[in-house]
Amino acid sequence: MSREFPALALVVLLASCSAEKAPLVASDVDIRKPVPGMNMSAGYLALTNNTSRPVVITHVDSTQFGSVELHESVLEDGVSRMRPLGELTIPPRQTVRFEPGGKHLMLMRPAIGADTVTLDFYSGDTVVLTVNASLQD
Amino acid sequence: MKPRNAFIALVALIAIAMGTWTSYRLMTPPPAPQTATVFPAATALPEFSLLDQYGNPVGREVFEGQWDLVFFGYTHCPDICPLTMQTLASARRRLAESGQDPLPRIVFVSVDPERDTPDLMRQYVDYFGDGNLGITGEPDEIRKLAGGLGIYYEKTAVVDDTYTVDHSAIVIVVNPRGEFHALFGAPHEVANFVHDLPIIMVQKQ
Protein backbone atom coordinates (compact mmCIF):
# COMPACT_ATOMS: atom_id res chain seq x y z
CA MET A 1 0.00 0.00 0.00
CA SER A 2 2.77 2.34 0.87
CA ARG A 3 4.18 1.91 -2.65
CA GLU A 4 0.86 2.32 -4.43
CA PHE A 5 -0.07 5.56 -2.73
CA PRO A 6 2.56 7.81 -4.34
CA ALA A 7 1.68 6.43 -7.78
CA LEU A 8 -2.01 7.02 -7.17
CA ALA A 9 -1.30 10.52 -5.88
CA LEU A 10 0.74 11.27 -9.02
CA VAL A 11 -2.10 10.19 -11.30
CA VAL A 12 -4.57 12.35 -9.39
CA LEU A 13 -2.16 15.29 -9.55
CA LEU A 14 -1.66 14.93 -13.32
CA ALA A 15 -5.40 14.61 -13.87
CA SER A 16 -5.95 17.74 -11.84
CA CYS A 17 -3.27 19.64 -13.82
CA SER A 18 -4.80 18.52 -17.07
CA ALA A 19 -8.28 19.54 -15.96
CA GLU A 20 -7.06 23.00 -14.95
CA LYS A 21 -5.07 23.68 -18.11
CA ALA A 22 -6.74 26.51 -19.99
CA PRO A 23 -7.66 25.70 -23.59
CA LEU A 24 -5.87 28.78 -24.93
CA VAL A 25 -2.93 30.35 -23.13
CA ALA A 26 -0.99 33.54 -23.83
CA SER A 27 2.70 33.91 -22.96
CA ASP A 28 5.61 36.26 -23.76
CA VAL A 29 3.13 39.14 -23.88
CA ASP A 30 4.75 42.40 -25.05
CA ILE A 31 2.29 45.17 -25.92
CA ARG A 32 4.11 48.35 -26.90
CA LYS A 33 3.19 51.92 -26.04
CA PRO A 34 2.71 54.03 -29.15
CA VAL A 35 5.70 56.17 -30.12
CA PRO A 36 4.86 59.70 -28.88
CA GLY A 37 2.60 61.46 -31.36
CA MET A 38 1.59 58.22 -33.10
CA ASN A 39 -1.86 56.69 -32.92
CA MET A 40 -0.82 53.07 -33.28
CA SER A 41 1.53 50.48 -31.89
CA ALA A 42 2.24 46.78 -32.08
CA GLY A 43 1.63 43.87 -29.74
CA TYR A 44 3.48 40.57 -29.56
CA LEU A 45 2.68 37.35 -27.73
CA ALA A 46 2.56 33.59 -28.09
CA LEU A 47 -0.79 31.78 -28.20
CA THR A 48 -0.83 28.11 -27.23
CA ASN A 49 -3.76 25.88 -28.04
CA ASN A 50 -3.93 23.15 -25.38
CA THR A 51 -6.94 21.42 -26.92
CA SER A 52 -7.23 18.67 -29.50
CA ARG A 53 -9.16 20.93 -31.90
CA PRO A 54 -8.05 23.97 -33.92
CA VAL A 55 -8.86 27.35 -32.38
CA VAL A 56 -9.80 30.08 -34.83
CA ILE A 57 -9.29 33.68 -33.72
CA THR A 58 -11.65 35.84 -35.74
CA HIS A 59 -11.00 39.22 -34.14
CA VAL A 60 -9.57 41.01 -31.11
CA ASP A 61 -11.15 43.83 -29.11
CA SER A 62 -9.77 46.20 -26.52
CA THR A 63 -11.34 48.95 -24.47
CA GLN A 64 -8.04 50.89 -24.55
CA PHE A 65 -7.68 50.93 -28.34
CA GLY A 66 -10.14 51.97 -31.02
CA SER A 67 -9.31 48.89 -33.05
CA VAL A 68 -7.03 45.88 -32.92
CA GLU A 69 -6.13 43.99 -36.08
CA LEU A 70 -4.15 40.83 -36.71
CA HIS A 71 -1.36 41.71 -39.12
CA GLU A 72 1.74 40.12 -40.56
CA SER A 73 4.93 41.72 -41.83
CA VAL A 74 6.66 39.81 -44.59
CA LEU A 75 9.97 40.46 -46.27
CA GLU A 76 9.94 39.63 -49.98
CA ASP A 77 12.94 40.42 -52.17
CA GLY A 78 14.11 43.05 -49.69
CA VAL A 79 10.69 44.75 -49.58
CA SER A 80 8.76 44.90 -46.31
CA ARG A 81 5.02 44.38 -46.72
CA MET A 82 2.36 44.47 -44.01
CA ARG A 83 -0.91 42.65 -44.54
CA PRO A 84 -4.04 41.93 -42.47
CA LEU A 85 -4.20 38.29 -41.47
CA GLY A 86 -7.98 37.97 -41.34
CA GLU A 87 -8.66 34.88 -39.24
CA LEU A 88 -5.88 33.09 -37.41
CA THR A 89 -6.00 29.34 -36.86
CA ILE A 90 -3.99 27.85 -34.01
CA PRO A 91 -3.63 24.12 -34.67
CA PRO A 92 -4.26 21.59 -31.87
CA ARG A 93 -1.48 21.43 -29.24
CA GLN A 94 0.54 24.06 -31.04
CA THR A 95 1.80 27.58 -30.38
CA VAL A 96 1.58 30.50 -32.78
CA ARG A 97 4.06 33.28 -32.08
CA PHE A 98 3.53 36.97 -32.74
CA GLU A 99 7.04 38.45 -33.00
CA PRO A 100 8.72 41.62 -34.28
CA GLY A 101 9.07 41.36 -38.04
CA GLY A 102 6.31 38.74 -38.31
CA LYS A 103 2.76 38.32 -37.06
CA HIS A 104 1.71 41.15 -34.76
CA LEU A 105 -1.31 42.87 -33.30
CA MET A 106 -1.78 46.31 -34.82
CA LEU A 107 -3.33 48.46 -32.08
CA MET A 108 -4.84 51.71 -33.31
CA ARG A 109 -6.30 54.83 -31.73
CA PRO A 110 -5.12 54.40 -28.11
CA ALA A 111 -7.05 55.86 -25.17
CA ILE A 112 -5.22 58.85 -23.74
CA GLY A 113 -2.98 57.98 -20.81
CA ALA A 114 -3.57 54.22 -20.91
CA ASP A 115 -0.77 52.28 -19.19
CA THR A 116 -2.44 48.89 -19.26
CA VAL A 117 -4.44 47.05 -21.86
CA THR A 118 -7.10 44.36 -21.87
CA LEU A 119 -7.32 42.31 -25.05
CA ASP A 120 -10.29 40.02 -25.74
CA PHE A 121 -9.60 37.35 -28.34
CA TYR A 122 -12.77 36.21 -30.07
CA SER A 123 -13.73 33.11 -31.94
CA GLY A 124 -16.95 34.24 -33.58
CA ASP A 125 -19.11 35.70 -30.80
CA THR A 126 -17.23 33.95 -28.01
CA VAL A 127 -14.32 35.38 -26.05
CA VAL A 128 -11.82 32.52 -25.93
CA LEU A 129 -9.02 34.41 -24.18
CA THR A 130 -8.60 37.64 -22.24
CA VAL A 131 -5.12 39.07 -21.82
CA ASN A 132 -4.28 41.88 -19.38
CA ALA A 133 -0.90 43.52 -19.76
CA SER A 134 1.07 46.67 -19.01
CA LEU A 135 2.08 48.73 -22.01
CA GLN A 136 5.84 48.56 -22.62
CA ASP A 137 8.18 51.30 -23.88
CA MET B 1 77.23 27.54 -24.78
CA LYS B 2 79.87 30.19 -25.30
CA PRO B 3 78.64 33.78 -24.88
CA ARG B 4 79.38 34.49 -28.58
CA ASN B 5 77.30 31.53 -29.76
CA ALA B 6 74.48 32.48 -27.40
CA PHE B 7 74.45 35.96 -28.87
CA ILE B 8 74.30 34.58 -32.44
CA ALA B 9 71.43 32.27 -31.44
CA LEU B 10 69.52 35.17 -29.88
CA VAL B 11 69.96 37.32 -33.00
CA ALA B 12 68.80 34.41 -35.17
CA LEU B 13 65.71 33.89 -32.99
CA ILE B 14 64.78 37.58 -33.17
CA ALA B 15 65.28 37.55 -36.95
CA ILE B 16 63.03 34.49 -37.33
CA ALA B 17 60.34 36.05 -35.08
CA MET B 18 60.37 39.33 -37.02
CA GLY B 19 60.23 37.50 -40.34
CA THR B 20 57.29 35.39 -39.19
CA TRP B 21 55.44 38.46 -37.90
CA THR B 22 56.06 40.41 -41.12
CA SER B 23 54.91 37.58 -43.38
CA TYR B 24 51.83 37.06 -41.17
CA ARG B 25 50.95 40.75 -41.51
CA LEU B 26 51.45 40.65 -45.28
CA MET B 27 49.43 37.47 -45.76
CA THR B 28 46.52 38.33 -43.42
CA PRO B 29 43.88 40.32 -45.28
CA PRO B 30 42.43 43.38 -43.54
CA PRO B 31 39.10 42.75 -41.76
CA ALA B 32 36.17 42.77 -44.17
CA PRO B 33 32.47 43.51 -43.61
CA GLN B 34 30.51 40.30 -43.05
CA THR B 35 27.02 41.38 -44.07
CA ALA B 36 27.20 44.86 -45.60
CA THR B 37 27.66 45.34 -49.33
CA VAL B 38 30.33 48.00 -49.92
CA PHE B 39 30.41 49.46 -53.41
CA PRO B 40 33.75 49.62 -55.25
CA ALA B 41 32.93 53.21 -56.21
CA ALA B 42 30.56 55.30 -54.09
CA THR B 43 27.97 57.31 -56.05
CA ALA B 44 26.67 60.81 -55.47
CA LEU B 45 23.16 61.21 -54.06
CA PRO B 46 20.58 62.83 -56.33
CA GLU B 47 19.55 66.46 -55.94
CA PHE B 48 16.41 66.92 -53.85
CA SER B 49 14.57 69.60 -51.90
CA LEU B 50 12.89 68.36 -48.72
CA LEU B 51 12.31 69.27 -45.04
CA ASP B 52 13.95 68.10 -41.85
CA GLN B 53 11.94 67.35 -38.69
CA TYR B 54 11.99 71.04 -37.74
CA GLY B 55 10.56 72.12 -41.07
CA ASN B 56 13.90 73.48 -42.33
CA PRO B 57 14.69 72.95 -46.00
CA VAL B 58 17.34 70.31 -46.69
CA GLY B 59 19.10 69.18 -49.86
CA ARG B 60 21.72 66.56 -50.51
CA GLU B 61 24.35 68.64 -48.67
CA VAL B 62 22.65 67.60 -45.42
CA PHE B 63 24.39 64.25 -45.91
CA GLU B 64 27.88 65.79 -46.05
CA GLY B 65 30.22 65.87 -43.08
CA GLN B 66 29.29 62.66 -41.23
CA TRP B 67 28.56 58.99 -41.82
CA ASP B 68 24.82 58.35 -42.07
CA LEU B 69 22.65 55.24 -41.73
CA VAL B 70 19.57 55.94 -43.84
CA PHE B 71 16.31 54.00 -43.52
CA PHE B 72 13.19 54.68 -45.55
CA GLY B 73 9.93 54.01 -43.68
CA TYR B 74 6.81 55.69 -42.31
CA THR B 75 5.55 56.60 -38.87
CA HIS B 76 2.23 54.70 -39.24
CA CYS B 77 4.21 51.46 -39.63
CA PRO B 78 3.88 49.68 -36.24
CA ASP B 79 6.28 46.78 -36.69
CA ILE B 80 9.22 46.88 -39.12
CA CYS B 81 9.98 50.62 -38.90
CA PRO B 82 10.25 50.95 -35.09
CA LEU B 83 12.03 47.60 -35.05
CA THR B 84 14.64 48.85 -37.53
CA MET B 85 15.01 52.21 -35.80
CA GLN B 86 15.51 50.42 -32.47
CA THR B 87 18.10 48.15 -34.08
CA LEU B 88 20.01 51.14 -35.47
CA ALA B 89 19.79 53.00 -32.14
CA SER B 90 21.03 49.92 -30.24
CA ALA B 91 23.91 49.45 -32.68
CA ARG B 92 24.90 53.10 -32.36
CA ARG B 93 24.78 52.86 -28.56
CA ARG B 94 26.98 49.76 -28.57
CA LEU B 95 29.46 51.41 -30.94
CA ALA B 96 29.60 54.43 -28.62
CA GLU B 97 30.21 52.16 -25.62
CA SER B 98 33.11 50.52 -27.46
CA GLY B 99 34.70 53.91 -28.12
CA GLN B 100 33.97 53.99 -31.87
CA ASP B 101 34.74 57.36 -33.42
CA PRO B 102 33.18 58.61 -35.62
CA LEU B 103 29.66 57.46 -34.83
CA PRO B 104 27.08 57.34 -37.61
CA ARG B 105 23.95 59.49 -37.58
CA ILE B 106 20.57 57.78 -38.00
CA VAL B 107 18.38 59.21 -40.77
CA PHE B 108 14.72 58.29 -41.24
CA VAL B 109 13.21 59.28 -44.60
CA SER B 110 9.43 59.10 -44.92
CA VAL B 111 7.86 57.12 -47.75
CA ASP B 112 4.47 58.42 -46.58
CA PRO B 113 4.96 62.20 -46.77
CA GLU B 114 1.19 62.86 -47.00
CA ARG B 115 0.78 61.74 -43.38
CA ASP B 116 4.30 62.33 -42.05
CA THR B 117 4.45 66.03 -41.23
CA PRO B 118 7.72 67.48 -39.89
CA ASP B 119 6.14 67.63 -36.42
CA LEU B 120 5.28 63.91 -36.47
CA MET B 121 8.75 63.13 -37.82
CA ARG B 122 10.34 65.11 -34.96
CA GLN B 123 8.43 63.17 -32.30
CA TYR B 124 9.25 59.92 -34.09
CA VAL B 125 13.00 60.32 -34.61
CA ASP B 126 13.51 61.90 -31.18
CA TYR B 127 11.97 58.82 -29.57
CA PHE B 128 14.86 56.71 -30.89
CA GLY B 129 17.64 58.97 -29.61
CA ASP B 130 19.31 62.35 -29.83
CA GLY B 131 20.86 63.65 -33.02
CA ASN B 132 18.69 61.66 -35.43
CA LEU B 133 17.53 63.28 -38.66
CA GLY B 134 14.02 62.96 -40.08
CA ILE B 135 13.29 63.89 -43.69
CA THR B 136 9.89 64.42 -45.28
CA GLY B 137 8.33 66.84 -47.76
CA GLU B 138 6.77 66.86 -51.20
CA PRO B 139 6.02 63.38 -52.58
CA ASP B 140 7.80 64.14 -55.88
CA GLU B 141 10.97 65.17 -54.05
CA ILE B 142 10.86 62.05 -51.85
CA ARG B 143 10.55 60.07 -55.07
CA LYS B 144 13.73 61.72 -56.40
CA LEU B 145 15.79 60.83 -53.33
CA ALA B 146 14.38 57.30 -53.04
CA GLY B 147 14.74 56.65 -56.75
CA GLY B 148 18.37 57.73 -56.73
CA LEU B 149 19.09 55.17 -54.00
CA GLY B 150 17.10 52.33 -55.55
CA ILE B 151 14.42 52.44 -52.86
CA TYR B 152 11.06 50.97 -53.88
CA TYR B 153 7.84 51.99 -52.14
CA GLU B 154 4.16 51.84 -52.91
CA LYS B 155 0.92 52.52 -51.08
CA THR B 156 -1.30 49.51 -50.49
CA ALA B 157 -4.94 49.87 -49.46
CA VAL B 158 -5.85 47.79 -46.41
CA VAL B 159 -9.42 48.62 -45.43
CA ASP B 160 -11.53 51.53 -46.67
CA ASP B 161 -9.55 54.71 -46.08
CA THR B 162 -6.54 53.13 -44.37
CA TYR B 163 -3.38 52.11 -46.15
CA THR B 164 0.06 50.74 -45.51
CA VAL B 165 3.18 51.35 -47.56
CA ASP B 166 5.30 48.54 -48.94
CA HIS B 167 8.90 49.68 -48.90
CA SER B 168 12.48 48.52 -49.33
CA ALA B 169 13.86 47.58 -45.94
CA ILE B 170 17.57 48.12 -46.64
CA VAL B 171 19.73 50.46 -44.58
CA ILE B 172 21.95 52.68 -46.69
CA VAL B 173 25.36 53.92 -45.57
CA VAL B 174 26.20 57.41 -46.82
CA ASN B 175 29.80 58.55 -46.43
CA PRO B 176 30.86 62.04 -45.27
CA ARG B 177 31.13 63.20 -48.89
CA GLY B 178 27.41 62.58 -49.20
CA GLU B 179 27.82 59.48 -51.38
CA PHE B 180 25.96 56.16 -51.42
CA HIS B 181 28.79 54.04 -49.99
CA ALA B 182 27.33 50.71 -48.78
CA LEU B 183 24.12 48.98 -47.77
CA PHE B 184 22.82 46.46 -45.26
CA GLY B 185 20.10 44.09 -46.48
CA ALA B 186 17.16 43.14 -44.24
CA PRO B 187 16.47 41.52 -41.85
CA HIS B 188 18.71 43.62 -39.64
CA GLU B 189 20.72 42.50 -36.61
CA VAL B 190 22.47 44.82 -34.17
CA ALA B 191 25.60 42.62 -34.23
CA ASN B 192 25.98 43.05 -38.00
CA PHE B 193 26.12 46.84 -37.73
CA VAL B 194 28.44 46.68 -34.72
CA HIS B 195 30.85 44.42 -36.60
CA ASP B 196 30.80 46.04 -40.03
CA LEU B 197 30.45 49.77 -39.42
CA PRO B 198 33.88 50.33 -37.81
CA ILE B 199 35.43 48.55 -40.80
CA ILE B 200 33.39 50.51 -43.35
CA MET B 201 33.96 53.86 -41.66
CA VAL B 202 37.77 53.57 -41.81
CA GLN B 203 37.80 52.60 -45.47
CA LYS B 204 39.07 55.14 -47.96
CA GLN B 205 36.61 58.02 -47.90
SSE order of chain B, as H and E?
Answer: HEEEEHEHEHEEEEH
Low-pLDDT segments of chain A: 1-19
> What about the largest sheet of chain B?
8 strands, mixed
Shape of chain B: elongated
Total count of strands of chain A? 11
CATH architecture of the largest domain in chain B: 3-Layer(aba) Sandwich
Strand order of the largest sheet of chain B: 1-10-9-4-5-6-2-3
* Mean of pLDDT of chain A: 87
Task: State the end-to-end CA separation of chain B.
Answer: 56 Å
Total number of distinct structural domains of chain B: 2
Quick one: CATH superfamily of chain A?
A: PCu(A)C copper chaperone
Quote the CATH topology of chain A. Answer: Immunoglobulin-like
Please compute the radius of gyration of chain B using only Cα atoms.
Answer: 23 Å
- Quaternary status of these chains? heterodimer
In terms of per-residue confidence, which ranges of chain B show pLDDT below 50 for 5 or more consecutive residues?
none
Can you walk through the features of this model?
The complex is a heterodimer of chains A (137) and B (205). By secondary structure, chain A is mainly β. Chain A has a single domain (22-136), classed as PCu(A)C copper chaperone (Immunoglobulin-like, Sandwich). Chain A has one helix and eleven strands; from the N terminus they run αβββββββββββ. In chain A, strand 1 and strand 2 (40-49) form a beta hairpin. The longest helix of chain A is centred in the N-terminal third of the chain and has 17 residues, at 4-20. Chain A is globular. Chain B is of the alpha+beta class. Chain B has an eight-stranded mixed beta sheet. The chains are: A mainly beta (137), B alpha+beta (205).
